[in-house]
Amino acid sequence: MAHSSTTSKPPAPVLPVIVTGMADVGRLIRELELIDNTLLQLGLRTGGSEVKMPKTSRLMDQVIHDNRLNLLQQADRAVLRQFLATIKQQSPVLHMSFSTDPPPRFLETLVTWLRREIHPAALLNIGLQPNIGAGCILRTTNKQFDFSLRQDFQKKRDLLLSQLAAPTAKPPAPASAKGTP
Questions:
Q1: Model confidence, pTM
Q2: Contact, 73 vs 39, CB < 8 A?
Q3: Comparing C-alpha atoms, which of 68, 71, 67 is closest to residue 53?
Q4: What digits encode the pLDDT tens for the residues 46-70?
Q5: Which CATH number is correct for 92-163, 3.30.2320, 4.10.320, 3.40.50, 3.30.70?
């Protein structure tokens, strides 16, 4: 009886949640190139010379850990290089503007939701617009959504002005004052 051999394809690489934007992807690509160059130099050097490996960043450490890669292996570096190039070229990028820098925990939650609901490799560019008050403005390649307090006030401007211009009524007298002679 012959055994059927099935070649299982390695799982597709995943993008960690801490890699949020295109700048992070660019940093990872440059860091991978530095590691490639260092390992190439190591192969060209004669024995006895000391080579100092570059330290990897927290981003790269997370990518390596999540994808179970060994960057000493040429094949793993090639897989990561191809994956990062694909992310850079094809990932949807959303631009969100806030009035202040959002906390890292909020960004992590937001990116997790975007990757679960929108696209597994969605990237997020964060901008600051202090004049929006509260909320955010979201831009994609072809749409813009304004979820800011400023926009909400502009939509309800007439109501706000009518309430401000309305004569103020006297507040009713306290109930305890009515019953006492």
A1: 0.69
A2: no
A3: 71
A4: 666 666 777 888 989 998 898 898 8
A5: 3.30.2320
